[in-house]
Each structure stands twice: as structure tokens, then as C-alpha cells.
Amino acid sequence: MPDNAPHSSAPAPAPALPSPASTGISGLDNVLFGGLPPKHLYLVEGSPGTGKTTLALQFLLCGRDKGERGLYITLSETSEELAQVAQSHGWNLNGVEVYDLVSDEGLSEDAEQTILHPSEFELGETTRDVMQLVTRLKPHRVAFDSLSELRMLAQSPLRYRRQILALKRFFSQQGCTVLMLDDKSAGEGDQQLHSIAHGVIHLNQNTHDYGPDKRSLRVVKLRGVQFRSGDHDFSLERGGLVVFPRLAAGEHGRTFNPTPLSTGSAAFDAMLGGGLTPGSNLLFAGPAGVGKSTTAVSCAVAAMARGEKVAYYLFDEGQHTLRQRAQALGLPIESELASGQFLLRSFDPAEVSPGQFAQSVRDAVERDGVRMVVIDSLNSYMQAMPGGQFLLLQMHELLAYLNQQGIVTLVILSLHGTVSDIRSDIDLSYLSDAMVYYRYFEAGGSVLKAITVIKSRTLQHESTIREFRLGAAGVEIGEPLTDFQGILAGAAHYGGRQALLGDADNVTPGG
């Protein structure tokens, strides 16, 4: 090739990004897509009691377990208080340096309006003291608790911002990954730290008139990398923060066989147009005591007979009541409970958050291999939590996730009333792929039950109304009620001589 010929050169490969620093909280790492980019300063903000200190300790302990040096600088809590927090979670702080800027001298009368040692009274001196400490210890991870004291010492927003910028530049030069905690004492309008920090994690605590406080976190910003936006529920338990990432159904698709599966009743299969379709949800709606839960248990028993695992989530009644009723109706679940094939979970709706419930369902599907999910009932779950509009959106996301996983989902919805005026406070019909409707009606001096399939998006269902009852053989479904009018309106009129399911019980031998 001649010397003057143009030379082609490949573009230089982009430098590889450093591995993210795990926070020690698996759910938060999921939200952050692995963790925090190292060697940057991050703001963790929230009102007192939201869990900032616990999060910071988990971050430092995770680094310690990876062989990284950790430093906790505290201006608001003593080292003894931090040790007590760690002990309450079953942790020890061995290997994590705790530097306490609070002193007995600082609490004396000579200190007047400051809690800091006289030599650290000025903001500049406090900042220099922190820098000298970091230079000497050379930590990989630093937690600074909290910025409220620095803000008070600064006396002016300009001086405060300059000192934070100086600390940020210094920590960056030292290669530290830093969490700065702020209790938002300056109010919601203080955005100075947001513009300085590389990322911002906001912790929130919702208080209600009844029940425990519910907590959530939001990643407000994270420069240069992706993260899961929106609110993510978390709980503060012994052992630290447990974060439940917001469910995004579109991330969880899989292939599955859509062939309908039997409910265990040939008549019910016929009404549904062939049975239960994998990747769809079926809503059982009707008044209390009509047999919705028992129908769901019957479908679960049929699924377990095929070798499938079932998860049943109870929000209304206790496990003992459900097990007694199943035994009385000849529906076997005890051995399946013992073997783990039938996962029966009770939730107090006042205690559980939507994210925690969704995570429990995900664990059952992805970890335990569950192929059928029953939610009994939606009323208690939704009415015990604030923000019904968002709960509907979260339930829509959960049902979409289950559908994409090929799960058969049965959802129970109780309607108010018994015979005539029946209504619901929750309209989930648009969320359901199929809907089964139950009604009471009167005939021959007895209160009987009827069942019909209102809609099905996946199969060609029957439009008939059939008699329904629970007996020693479990769920029984009769022939179409062709001689009755007005059953769904709650004013049934008998116009013929059609035999009913109970007629055979009244025939005497030899009669």
C-alpha cells in the first residue's frame, strides 16, 4: 500500500464502567440495577425514623464483607447509639470505624448553642477535621450522618453549599463512595443537595389513622446509569431494610402452553368453554357465603391432582376455617399442605403493603414453581389500604405479570347484599379475562344458588344460568335453569316443572 494511501482505524473501545457498589440490600440493588456507581457522593434523605441510619449501616457492612474499609461519621448520634441500632438488627460493627463528633464537652454550658466540641465549633474546622480523618483512614465507603448539623453551623445557604462542594471534591479525590444522610429539617423546598449529589434516594414514611406506618423509597436521580423509577415499598425489620421493587410486568414474559385445564368439574369446564386458560385470570363475584372460595379450592385441588403447585392467599378468613370447610366438603388439601404443594398464606391487610404482597406472589411463581394463584378476597386487601386508584393500577400490573408467566389466577370478589340489590365497591370486571357470577334465588321454599359465566376473553363460554350447590362431593353444578326467569335480577319466577339438584335428596326409598 502506498505511503500516501488513507489508513483505516477502528474507534477506540469505550472504557469499561466500574462494577457498581452493592448497597447490601438486594431489593435496592435491583432498583439500582446492581448498586451505586462507586467513588461518588449520594444523598439519602427522609424524615426521622424512615430508616436512613439502618440503610447506611447496611451499606458499610456490605463493604466490610467485601474487604472494603468503612467509616461512619456521626454528628447527630453517639457511637453508643449506633452500636445499639446495630445490635437490634443482630449486627456487630467490627471492621467499621465509627467516628463520633459529639462530645461531653460539647454538651456542657460552655458550649452554649452547639453540641460540637469547641475546637470544632466553626464549620470550616469541622470540615477540615473530617478531611484529616478520611486522609488517615483511607476508607472505601463513608456514611456522613447528618447534614442538618452542618446546615445549622453554616448559617447561610451559600456557605453551606460551598462546604458541601468542598467535601464532594475531596471525597472524589480520595476515591470514596459516600452516603450523606439528611433529615430534611430545611423543608421540602431545599434542593441544593440534589444538584450537588451524584444520586438521591428519598425515603418516605406514610402514617395512617389505623395500622402500622407504611414505608416507601424513590430514587430521585442517578447520573449516568439506569434505575427503576417510581415508588418502591420497603419494610424496616430485624436484619435491616427489605425493599420490594415496583413490579413491571413487561420485564417478565415467558412461553407456556395455552391449552385449557380442567376445573375438576365437567359441567364447570363446559360453562367456561373448555376450562381454565393458562395465562389468564378468572374473577369469582358474588355475595357472601355463596361458594366462591370453595369453588376456588376445588379448582386448586384439580390442579394439584395434575401435579401443579398452588399458592392460596387469604385476606378474609383464617387458615383453620378454610381447612375445616375443605375437609367437610371432601376436598383434600392437608397432605398437599404438608408436602408444600399447596402454599396457604394468610395476610393481615392492615399490615402488608402492596409491594410486599406482589413480591410474595413473585417469589411463589419464580422460586417455588407455582402454576395457580388464588387471591381471596380482593375486598379486604384493597379496602384496608389507602389510595384505591393506585391499588387498582398495582393489581392490574400484578395480573398482567401472572398472565405473562402462564399462571392461572383466580380472584375472589365479594358483593354487598344477598338477593335483590347486590353491588360492589370495586369494579374489577375490566381487569378480568373471565368472570363467573353467583346469585341466590328462591324456589320451593328454599334458598338456592345459581352460577353463570358473564364473559371470557379466551374461550367461547356458555351463556346459560345453572344451579350450583356445595355438598359432600364438593362442588355440584346442575342443568341450565330454563324454567326460571329473573334469577340475576334477584326476583326468580318459576315457570315450569324442571328438576333441581335437591329434588333427589327428598325422594324416599321405594317412593
Number of strands: 20
CATH superfamily of the largest domain: P-loop containing nucleotide triphosphate hydrolases
Structural class: alpha/beta
**Quick check: average pLDDT?**
86
Number of domains: 2
Number of helices: 14
And the CATH topology of the largest domain? Rossmann fold
Strand residue content: 25-35%
Gap between N and C termini, in Å? 112 Å
Strand order of the largest sheet: 3-2-4-5-1-6-7-8-9
Radius of gyration: 31 Å
Structural commentary:
By secondary structure, the protein is α/β, with parallel strands linked by helices. The protein folds into 2 domains: 26-246, P-loop containing nucleotide triphosphate hydrolases (Rossmann fold, 3-Layer(aba) Sandwich), CATH 3.40.50; 259-506, 3-Layer(aba) Sandwich (Rossmann fold), CATH 3.40.50.300. The protein has 14 helices and 20 strands. It has helices spanning 26-31, 52-65, 79-88, 123-137, 147-154, 157-174, 192-196, 266-272, 292-305, 319-328, 334-339, 354-366, 378-383, 388-404; strands at 41-45, 70-74, 96-100, 141-145, 177-182, 199-206, 214-222, 231-237, 240-244, 280-287, 309-314, 342-346, 370-376, 408-415, 434-443, 446-456, 465-471, 474-480, 484-485, 493-494. A 9-stranded mixed beta sheet has the order 3-2-4-5-1-6-7-8-9, sandwiched between helices. Residues 105-121 and 507-511 have low confidence and may be disordered.
